[in-house]
Every structure is written in C-alpha cells, then in structure tokens.
Amino acid sequence: MSEHFRVQGGARLVGEVDVVGAKNSVLKLMAAALLAEGTTTITNCPEILDVPLMADVLRSLGCEVDIDGDVATITTPAELNHRADSEAMGKLRASVCVLGPLVGRCKRAVVALPGGDAIGSRPLDMHQSGLRKLGARSEIEHGCVVAEAEGLHGAQIWLDFPSVGATENILMAAVLANGTTVIDNAAREPEIVDICVMLQQMGARIEGAGTSTLTVHGVESLRPTEHRVIGDRIVGATWAFAAAMTRGDITVRGVDPHHLDLVLEKLRMAGAEVTTSGHDTFRVVQHDRPQSVDFVTLPYPGFATDLQPFAIALSSVSDGTSMITENLFEARFRFIEEMVRLGADARTDGHHAVVRGVEKLSSAPVWASDIRAGAGLVLAGLCADGTTEVYEIFHIERGYPGFVENLRKLGATVDRVTA
Ligand code: UD1
C-alpha cells in the first residue's frame, strides 16, 4: 500500500503553529542518558518515529525506556551492554551518538554503522580519530564501529571540520575521561549547546558551549537529570519559508528566534516582514511575490544545510535568479530533479545551483528523498496550480510531527491518501 500527500495549490497559509522539541537534539540527549546510572527524564520530545527507534537502541544496551506523549523516561543500569542492536541502529543516523557515551562509560563499544537520510557520503573518520586521541582503539569491523580503551585520558583535538556528530561523540566520551580535553573547531549548533546544558546538569564540567572551543574537565561519574529539549529550529524555519512562499502570515511558537537569525534575515531580504517576541516566538508575513536571494550552506551560525531544499523551493517562485551553494552534503541537490518536475527553472553545476524564479509552479507527482526534501516538495506543491502528489512521505513524517494537521490549521488543503 502506498501512502502519499495530495496537496492543493494556491492556499495562503495564515495562523499560528506550535513547534516541539528538536529531532536532532532529543536523540542525542537520549544517548547522553547512558552516561549516568539511574532515571533520566527528557521532556518536550517530538512524537516522531525516530524517538521510539532510539528507545530500541537504548533498550538493546540494557536501559528501560518509557515514552509517554512528549516525555521519555530512561533508566540506565549500572552495567550497560556495550553492543548496540544492528536492526534499530540501521534505521537512523543519530544512533551513532551512542558510541561516545558507551566508550566513556564501558570503555568499549560495538556499534553498527548507522542508517538515516540518503543525503550523501557520511563518513565517521573524525568521530574515530577523536576517540583515538582520547586513548581508544577504533576500527570498522564487519559493518560495525568497534572501539575499546584501557582508560580514557584528556587530549587536545582539532577537528578538520566542525562536524555535529563528531563533536557530540567526542564530548560524550570526554566527560568521563581522566583529565582535560579541548575540542577545537567544534560545532556550535544550538543542539550542541543543548547537550552541554544537559551534561552540565548531570555534573559534567564543560566550558565554551556554543563556541568553537569546548573544554571538558573529566569527572568520575555523572548523575541522572531532567531536561527539556530545545525547540526544533529546522521545523520552525520550515514554517517561516511556508509563509514567505505562500505570501502568508505565520506565527511560530516554541523556537528561539535567535537560532534562526540568518534565516530570518534572508527572508527579510526576500521581502518578508519578520517580527520576534520573547525568547520563543516569531512571525513572518509576506505581502508580495518574494525577491530572489542567494543562499550558502555552512555549519552554524551559517545557513543550515537542512534548510537548503526550502531555499531552492522559495527561489523557484521568487522574482529573479538565485544562486544556492551546498557545502555539506552533495546529494541534497537530488531534490532539484523533483522541483524540475514541478516546473522549476533550476540547474546545478558542482555544488552550486542556479534557480530562475517562475510565477507559478505546475503540479506533478513527486518523490521525497529525505525529510527536508519531502517537506520542501509539499511547500512547492502549495505554490503550484492544481494538485501535487508527494510520495515516500514516511521521510517527512520522521521529522514533522502533525505535519498535515498543522498545514490544515494554517488553511492548506492537504490530504494523506492511502491507495
Ligand atoms: C547532523 C544532522 C543533520 C545535519 C548535519 C549538519 C543529526 C542526526 N543530523 O548530521 O541533519 O544536516 O548535522 O548540520 O543531528 N564528516 C566527515 N567525517 C566525519 C563526520 C562528518 O567527513 O567523521 C562530514 C560529513 O560528510 C559532512 C560534514 O562533515 O559533509 C558535516 O557532517 P556532520 O556535521 O557530522 O553531520 P551529522 O552529525 O551527520
């Protein structure tokens, strides 16, 4: 049976939308719970499939995990199993972040190579070389990352690139290492700050969260805690782009607008009226056809690669020509093939895309290749004449809790069809 979304073009999205916890934070926070014996509670969890999948990974390591609505309760035993179950691991990328906590706590880990979105090559060399610097042996054997150490010691680590996953794994191993670790060229994403805050509440000694130098003074042990996941900036930004593309008026609650400073500035350049209020609300109003704007993806605080499909989708209906440069995941440009089906005037050359805006897109059947590409196609369908059918929607549902309900609340005509 194939399930798809049927999206009616032409709606102007107007209203308010609440955004819950960040997918790319909650999964790492769940892994961080491995670092302390006892019961850790994580609130504001998004109700998406990846959360129960991550719960399965933790159960395979010996934890008891209960998920009740937006609350995950994880009870970690004194003795963890160091081997992460391959089936659950293969289903999501973030499962690799159990590697650091396992090496920290058990001094050994066997972790199947992770699955996740097909957005290009995703090596683990920086994760491994960081763990080696801390004193662990780390190899890929029979489809698994195998790491072992007599004991972990502090080290100076320079990352070639501010990788989110490598920063997280090294950080979560270093909190229990003997001595001080300095991670230079560390990732600065808000989700990294979120983990640092949780680890600090657990008793870790970390300085420099949100900067490119993280200093970690290892401690003997950590204690369990209760932590609220930060709002999902990528989901929040999706609604901001939806407002700009449909000449709508959307108020987004639950996301810190500072996490989207550059995104909101780009939308202002495209002609949107953007206002922020307090620490978790912003509003995007677009009166006229958007103006073309250039986008370059970079690690935070640059423009997020996860938002690149929305930059392409917006550019495809803007007035003028935009250049979009992708610096992180080459395969993300596959999305453009689907946009071309919808009548976009777009082409790529290496890691650049040139998009000439058209007045209106043309409805067509299209296929989602990952979470963000899928959501981008739905937004594009809202700007097309007629009815666009978006297939492979399981991708979208991995990242957007209540996507169809939210779209409908904002005035879109979207159906989830099982045929
Ligand atoms: C995370 C996010 C993903 C986001 C990405 C960049 C999760 C579950 N996923 O992915 O949504 O798009 O950050 O913001 O949080 N690299 C190496 N060697 C390594 C590690 C990474 O070469 O050892 C490269 C990657 O191929 C990529 C770049 O570094 O080109 C950035 O990857 P990274 O920041 O590690 O992304 P993820 O943590 O996998």
From TrEMBL:
Instruction: Please indicate if the UniProt record lists Phosphoprotein as a keyword.
Output: no
Q: Return the protein name.
A: UDP-N-acetylglucosamine 1-carboxyvinyltransferase
Q: Which residues bind UDP-N-acetyl-alpha-D-glucosamine?
A: 93, 306, 328
What residue stretches are annotated with the Enolpyruvate transferase domain?
A: 7-407
Could you state one GO cellular component term attached to this entry?
cytoplasm
Record keyword Transferase present: yes
PANTHER family, alphabetized: UDP-N-ACETYLGLUCOSAMINE 1-CARBOXYVINYLTRANSFERASE (PTHR43783)
The UniProt annotation places phosphoenolpyruvate binding at: 23-24
* Class of this enzyme: transferase
Fetch the NCBIfam families from UniProt.
murA (TIGR01072), PRK09369.1 (NF006873)
Give the family from UniProt: Belongs to the EPSP synthase family. MurA subfamily.
- Top-rank taxon of the source lineage equals Bacteria
Q: What are the boundaries of the signal sequence?
A: none
Originating gene: murA
